Amino acid sequence: MTASPLPLRPGQVAGLAETLPLWRVTDDGKAIRRELRFRDFRQAFDLMSAIAAAADEQDHHPDWSNSYNRVAIRLTTHDAGGISARDIRLAEAIDAAAASFGA
Ligand code: H2B
Q: What is the pTM of this model?
């Protein structure tokens, strides 16, 4: 198992607006979130399957929910008690997967 990740410093959190413009920092500053909307449930679920594969590869997992064609994703690092570089890396993979689905 790898060492526990460090949470981002406040300046790094502020910089997320530029590096991950589709994501918002939650009010408590401990997570980032993005909401996606698709044509239908099948598209939404296919994206979730793609994200699940990326998450397992990275050994870093989203907190998320799905309602029909919407997927709400929240990324936080439980082991760090906040946002870490692991969340950034997974967010980038999610953005790439979503773009390939046209979302
Ligand atoms: N996912 C997230 N979001 N945060 C974590 O701290 C985390 C994880 N820890 N996936 C990983 C798994 C850890 O439990 C394993 C043992 O590496």
A: 0.95
